[in-house]
Write a structure and sequence with these properties.
Layout lengths: L1 H4 L4 E10 L4 E4 L2 E5 L2 E4 L4 E8 L6 E7 L9 H7 L5 E10 L10 H18 L1
Length: 125
């Protein structure tokens, strides 16, 4: 009878933050929102986090969700089903994004553009 009263379960949640904030987050290739974002998960292991933001390099990172001791076999049966209170397992990941390098023209391309501007200026006079 006491098993019917047990409300144990494990709530698994990961939070992804970035500097700067507001980066689009893809978790294993699926869009989950903009940083900071929290997402529930079921399985532990390594997940792939991709951050996308204008003016910054798109970056992909591994996020290791380590299994806590109470979620390893055979203890996971008890923590998922028989605990008298809920447990929350939280993981937080913080990533620093790199700004894109400004586009630098080669000397030849820059000279060609300068000559084109000069020609346009002479024609418009």
């Amino acid at each position: 009878m006491w098993t019917m009263l047990a409300s144990g379960c494990v709530h698994r949640r990961m939070t992804i933050e970035s500097n700067p904030v507001g980066a689009l987050v893809l978790l294993d290739g699926k869009e989950i929102g903009y940083t900071p974002v929290s997402h529930d998960f079921t399985y532990y292991g390594t997940r792939e986090v991709t951050l996308i933001k204008d003016g910054y390099e798109t970056q992909t990172y591994p996020a290791q969700l380590r299994t806590p001791w109470y979620q390893k076999v055979p203890l996971d049966f008890f923590s998922d089903n028989l605990l008298l209170y809920p447990v929350t397992n939280r993981h937080r990941f913080r990533f620093q994004m790199r700004a894109k390098d400004p586009i630098v023209d080669s000397d030849e391309n820059l000279q060609q553009r300068g000559n084109a501007f000069r020609s346009e200026a002479l024609i418009s006079q």
